[in-house]
Recover the amino acids of this structure.
């Protein structure tokens, strides 16, 4: 019987993330694949429009995508899943502020097997632990001035804590059959699930092109983060900068200084989350090729994008920048990224030739790669590893059915 694979997302899915999840790849491997989008149950139409406002090409719109507008619709679809189906829950750990426990209850009621995944590890917070869902919620609460404004978020924290205890210590919610994670940190992040019998599937980070080869051409690469248009910020209701024009001006000054110090031109690598009508950087912008551009870079400039992981794993010098126009949330992202990968960040208006020369001499601890991006013994591509794990789940299920006849 043909296996059925359902990707379930509680947040709007971009074409960028869809390329990592690769539904079409699994179709080619023989799975009957569907992408279930339940984001409208969690986010307003205005928020979703803002999320995709940077580019008309950003929203994933493939024919296998099914949108659910009510819980009843989703419940009926889950009930109709057959025994040869596996659900990959894309939002269980990547979106810690989304209440999905009612979905886990439906999985339990209808005996649905599901997997959870985390393609990126939570970075250690400067002076503390990892930036998990709890840290995020507490951070948002502590930053609020008015108690009444904080109460709904406090209630959310308490609800999640109680529900998580129920998940761990009772059979009320379905537990995942497998957890897909990256590096030693990924294994540790899923430790509580592994103790309950969930299988861990270790993959290399999908954010890194592990087959990158150095090329003779040399550039300075800036990893654009769509500052001012960032989809995640629009969806979550925060901003990234207080003065976008000033930010662009500061970045152009940085580019000029880096170009003078290195003798190489700055090229902007953009993800495609926003398509600029007018080039705000006065530099060449290349869309959708950031990882490839990294192979040409003598230095990489950025803030906190996951596209910088490529530079970390291949020991590229990184000039990590914050800007005085950044909001507290964005500044926190930069600080957390720097703390996580062990590099310092600098203010855009305080960059000197000495700073740039210091960056060019920096290296990366290899253990950091094994911790955050790829366990040492993992060699295969991540899609092949996930495919094998899914086939094992289906094989175990089929043998169980035969044994029960």
């Amino acid at each position: 019987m043909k296996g059925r694979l359902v990707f379930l997302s509680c947040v709007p899915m971009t074409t960028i993330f869809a390329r990592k999840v690769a539904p079409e790849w699994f179709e080619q491997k023989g799975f009957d694949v569907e992408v279930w989008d339940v984001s409208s149950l969690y986010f307003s139409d205005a928020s979703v429009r803002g999320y995709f406002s940077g580019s008309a090409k950003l929203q994933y719109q493939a024919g296998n995508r099914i949108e659910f507008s009510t819980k009843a619709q989703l419940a009926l679809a889950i009930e109709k899943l057959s025994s040869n189906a596996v659900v990959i829950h894309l939002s269980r750990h990547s979106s810690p502020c989304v209440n999905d426990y009612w979905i886990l209850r439906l999985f339990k009621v209808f005996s649905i097997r599901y997997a959870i995944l985390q393609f990126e590890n939570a970075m250690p917070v400067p002076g503390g632990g990892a930036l998990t869902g709890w840290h995020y919620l507490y951070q948002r609460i502590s930053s609020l001035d008015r108690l009444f404004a904080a109460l709904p978020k406090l209630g959310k924290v308490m609800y999640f804590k109680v529900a998580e205890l129920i998940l761990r210590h009772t059979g009320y919610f379905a537990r995942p059959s497998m957890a897909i994670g990256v590096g030693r940190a990924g294994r540790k992040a899923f430790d509580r699930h592994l103790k309950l019998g969930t299988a861990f599937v270790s993959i290399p980070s999908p954010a890194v092109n592990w087959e990158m080869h150095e090329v003779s051409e040399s550039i300075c690469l800036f990893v654009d983060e769509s500052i001012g248009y960032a989809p995640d910020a629009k969806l979550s209701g925060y901003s990234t900068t207080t003065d976008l024009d000033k930010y662009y001006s500061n970045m152009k000054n940085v580019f000029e200084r880096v170009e003078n110090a290195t003798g190489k031109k700055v090229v902007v690598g953009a993800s495609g989350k926003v398509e600029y009508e007018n080039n705000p950087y006065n530099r060449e912008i290349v869309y959708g090729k950031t990882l490839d551009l990294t192979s040409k870079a003598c230095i990489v400039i950025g803030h906190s994008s996951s596209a910088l992981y490529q530079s970390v794993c291949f020991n590229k010098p990184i000039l990590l920048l914050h800007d005085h126009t950044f909001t507290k949330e964005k500044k926190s992202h930069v600080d957390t990224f720097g703390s996580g990968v062990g590099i310092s960040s600098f203010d855009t208006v305080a960059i000197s030739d000495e700073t740039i020369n210091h960056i060019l001499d920096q290296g990366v601890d290899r253990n950091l790669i094994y911790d955050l991006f790829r366990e040492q013994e993992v060699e295969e591509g991540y899609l092949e590893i996930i495919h094998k794990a899914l086939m094992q789940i289906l094989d175990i299920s089929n043998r169980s059915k035969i044994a029960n006849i």
Notes: Residues 219-369 form a domain with the Rossmann fold fold (CATH 3.40.50.2000).
